[in-house]
Protein: Phosphate transport regulator
Organism: Streptomyces variegatus
Amino acid sequence: MRFRLTPRETSFYDMFAASADNIVTGSKLLMELLGADTPARAEIAERMRAAEHAGDDATHAIFHQLNSSFITPFDREDIYTLASSLDDIMDFMEEAVDLVVLYNVEELPKGVDQQIEVLARAAELTAEAMPHLRTMDNLTEYWIEVNRLENQADQIHRKLLAHLFNGKYDAMDVLKLKQIVDVLEEAADAFEHVANTVETIAVKES
């Protein structure tokens, strides 16, 4: 009988992949939000809430596995950081949708569609990258591209803020819309945090 001297817990990889796939679901719901009327937005918010709960479940499953595993595929701190950062992305996307519904926003400002498109692309790249954690291969382009997308998101965010403060909006509407675009920017930052964490892991494992 053969014994493995350095066993590695493989279920973490599957759970990270599931968490990232759920984020893709969330990004698609954000895309749906753009062309939806008020009643449809409420239904999208319900589905986004369900996706956010599924993300929480995935995160808790990773934490439970982490606490019950003697040997992990890479540093425990990095596993915790990666899981938490993936969870943050889903939280920010759910918050943005919820704010649109709660504030009864009739029309989102021009530029929000660009923010959401960046998030959707970052979600796809993140989901594609997670399976590569098993081998740590073909990840460099992933974190470079996500960092580029985050820079693009920063530029879009600044233009949106300038647009909101150009005097054409009511002061109360500015406050509401600024909170929404700020949360979407936080989601872009969270994607970059995930990419940076993956880069850290890859460097340690190389």
